[in-house]
Structure formats: structure tokens, C-alpha cells
UniProtKB/TrEMBL annotation:
Chain residue ranges for the region called Disordered: 43-66
InterPro entries tied to this protein: DUF1918
Pfam family, one: DUF1918
Domain DUF1918: start-end pairs: 1-57
Name of the protein described by the UniProt record: DUF1918 domain-containing protein
Residue ranges, compositional bias (Basic and acidic residues): 56-66
Gene3D superfamilies per record: Domain of unknown function DUF1918
Length: 66
């Protein structure tokens, strides 16, 4: 998995009816775009995470939405 600052990380729901969770990557802490990533949720909460196999990187920048 490779990402850049501004990409979105989509974590798919693992049970029926659970929605996907989308966060913005605000900092890449691993070498060459690899995890871990500092991410920011829509509510402003930030955390450091290493995504699991149920996650994908959306390379559209957050400002490209709309």
C-alpha cells in the first residue's frame, strides 16, 4: 500500500449494514509512501494507523471531491 499526503483512506465495513469509514491522510510516516499514516477524520480527530487488508487508498485529493 502506497499513499501520499492528501489521499483518502477508505476502510470498508466488515459486517452487513456497516458503512465505509473514510479519513484523510495528513502525513505519511513510513518510507516511500508506506504505512503508518497520520490520518484525520471528518470530525477533526487525528490518529496514527497502519491500515489492514480491508482498506484501500483513494488517490483523489480531498479538495478534488465535488
Amino acid at each position: 500500500m502506497h499513499a501520499s499526503k492528501g489521499d483518502r483512506l477508505v476502510m470498508h465495513g466488515r459486517v452487513v449494514g456497516q458503512q465505509d469509514h473514510v479519513v484523510e491522510i495528513v502525513e505519511v510516516l513510513g518510507p516511500d509512501g508506506t504505512p503508518p499514516y497520520r490520518v484525520r477524520a471528518e470530525n477533526g480527530h487525528e490518529t496514527i494507523m497502519s491500515p489492514g487488508p480491508d482498506s484501500v487508498v483513494d488517490h483523489r485529493k480531498s479538495s478534488d471531491q465535488g
